[in-house]
Design goal:
alpha/beta; Rossmann fold; Alpha-Beta Plaits; four-stranded antiparallel sheet; 11 helices; globular
């Protein structure tokens, strides 16, 4: 049995459908990214896995505990770390007091090591914290008792780029130690650095379950080129070019073909400036899964979306 097993899980809020019959599993020691734009149902799924919400139908197990079995889940939670999207620390207490409280409940065997990696000013009250410092304090409390599974909701929110990179390195080291990591995100660049696999949620439905390299290959790259008109026309017809948007002295497009072919084509023309980047996660959804959330017939990019 995996660290997390989800089977036909559905959660409704009256007439609103939070998640709809989703099924997936997370292996022990795996870093699993749970992706989707805001409002897709990521937080609903996380809170259901932790027993904070009761499933409407279907079910799930976390470290072998049924999420409907309160006693079993309480025992399992001793081996789980949790970082919520909204931390909710009391503003008048210090970071040290927050950590002492969590230590009294679940232990703190790794606290000193974590404070060397993440450096929230624990002697100061929370009201003086920046968003990044508060997030670092949350990360420390999630890992301080050396859990077998850590569940995080948008863990790098508010962190500066250096701290984000430190977090990414830390997560890979935790995975090497055997810790299972499950976290939600809407940032594709973050996911590609640390995740083994990803599940993609859209409008409450699981529309994809992929290893990271497959996701990135299908998502392509966003290319913006400033060049002469003749080159723009030729590049627009190149195999693997989709979502073309022309502007005054060039064009922008998503490229899903062979990169050598693109470079060969570019070398034939007067390229004044070029920018290549990952497309936003929403664009990956639109290209790979289609506008209705279902997989496209031609993921290699030869059909338009």
């Amino acid at each position: 049995m995996g660290a997390i097993e989800v089977a036909e899980l559905t959660k409704e809020y009256g007439s609103v459908l939070g998640v709809d019959s989703i099924s997936f599993s997370v292996d022990e020691g795996e870093v699993f990214g749970f992706l989707g734009p805001n409002g897709a149902g990521k937080t609903t799924t996380i809170r259901t896995l932790l027993g904070l919400f009761a499933p409407t139908s279907g079910g799930a197990t976390v470290l072998g505990a049924d999420v409907r079995d309160e006693r079993a889940l309480v025992d399992a939670k001793r081996r789980i770390g949790y970082l919520p999207a909204n931390l909710g620390f009391h503003e008048e207490v210090t970071g040290e007091q927050v950590l002492e409280y969590h230590a009294s409940i679940k232990g703190d065997r790794r606290l000193d090591d974590l404070l060397d990696v993440f450096t929230p000013p624990i002697e100061r009250p929370i009201r003086e914290y920046s968003t990044g410092n508060e997030q670092m304090l949350g990360i420390v409390q999630a890992f301080m008792h050396d859990p077998d599974l850590v569940i995080m909701d948008e863990p790098t929110s508010g962190l500066d780029p250096l701290k984000q990179e430190r977090f990414n390195e830390f997560v890979r080291c935790e995975s090497d130690r055997g810790t299972t990591i499950f976290f939600s995100s809407h940032v594709l660049s973050e996911v590609r650095r640390v995740c083994d696999r990803v599940g993609i949620l859209r409008d409450g439905e699981l529309v994809g379950l992929e290893d990271v390299e497959t996701l990135l290959d299908q998502g392509g790259k966003r290319v913006r080129v400033q060049t002469i008109d003749e080159a723009s026309e030729a590049l627009a017809t190149l195999d693997g070019v989709v979502d073309v948007d022309a502007f005054a002295d060039g064009l922008q497009f998503v490229y899903t073909g062979d990169y050598n072919a693109l470079l060969e084509a570019l070398a034939s023309y007067d390229v004044r400036e070029i920018e290549i980047s990952e497309p936003p996660l929403e664009d990956v959804f639109m290209h790979y899964y289609g506008p209705d959330g279902s997989a496209t017939d031609d993921p290699e990019g030869e059909s338009s979306v």
